[in-house]
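#onboarding

Welcome to the new folks! Below is a worked example of what a typical request in this channel looks like: someone posts a single protein sequence, and someone else replies with the predicted structure as tokens. Don't worry about understanding the tokens yet, we'll cover that in week two.

Example request:
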Amino acid sequence: MCGDTWVSLVSWVMPSRKDVLRMKKTVSMCLALVLVFCLAAPAFAATNPAPADRLVNANCTYVVIAKDVNIRSSASSSSNIVRKESYGFQFHANATSTGPGSSRGWALVQAGQWLSGDYVVKVNFQTSTVKRTVKVTGGSLNVRTGPTTDAPVARTLANGTTVYIDYITDYYVNGWAWARIKLSATGASIGWTVMNGYLV
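Example response:
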């Protein structure tokens, strides 16, 4: 009896070569899954669907990402043009409509003024101030008038500059997650900049 117990104890303390190989394989698979997850995870919680996959929604905040976008009298591309807005124009969608001429629907800017969802990106307000530091090598970070590489550069920031984020895009634009930034927690916005690896 004592001999059987000793053999069992040794087998538990010193696993067989087969068990060791099995454990190594399990650990390797777990590490591979963790690596895949980390590489696939989008930065700063912004997702990366094509804009056409996102219809505009009421009670959300949007920013224009194109130049001279028509704001129309009704939710249709054939309705009268009321005015135009460009990069960085931000508004709250009071209502939405699936009228003709827009693949992502229409957002109501204010009474009698509709804007096509094809030219906007949804943005999310940061309820608590997010502090970040600019990280660039051998150059400066562009701050643009809107969350797109097509928007004009408003200014540049040097490496090590402290900024504060108040809005971030809900999904990537031009392959980037974007943040609207300020130079102080209570200051005014100075524009939009890319986040991926540049704000740490």
